[in-house]
Amino acid sequence: MNHQQNSATGVWTAVDTADGPMRIYVARPQDPADRAVVVLQEAFGVNDHIQAVTRRLAARGFLALAPDLFHRTGTAELTYSQHTEGMRLIGALGPGEITTDLRAVLDHLAIAERVPVSRTALTGFCFGGRAAFTGATALPGLAAAVVFYGPGIAVGRNAVLDRAKSVDAPLLLHVGAEDPTIPGEQVADIDEALTSAGVSYEQHVYPGAGHAFACDARPDKFCPGPADEAWARTFDFLDTHLPASA
Fold it and tell me: Average pLDDT over the chain, rounded to whole?
């Protein structure tokens, strides 16, 4: 992460959902903001990396919130070695559960923070990328959604690509060319579906990058060049579709 994250701090709060209380990690910018980004976790929970991403967005002037999508099981977070357990947990989170949780976050933003859905974007990483895409298909009026290497969008038990026509938010998708979880045929299927649906979107494929290429907490996965490029595009995209108030 860049040095700007040090200018923002994060705290935990909680909101009620239809399936019980859910913790949310919240990072606020130095100056009050009327724009928000909801950060959606990998398969390992709202861990140090996701918290750092949330602070990074706050340092750029966004109210940033990372909901604990594992709240139904009581699992706070997993280590990166607990891949099998993570796959089991995220496999149980389909479009219904994700939409329930995101609606609770959006309601919290509207009521407690006075930030409407039209001033809110979603971004997510790995499983959270699928969750962000899912949210864009189910929650009308979002300002934007950014997907970092989200497997399971086009194929799998919780795939949602067939709902592309319901997306009305601009989308930005980042995919590593060497990511085995999102092979080239799935990238092409996503392109075809979003184009056919008339969605405003960009999908960028990064040569030499694999899965989790923007996760600097995993040295075996992290690719600094593609990560920097993806983040630069992300901030440009968010500033375009979710500009700061004058």
Answer: 95
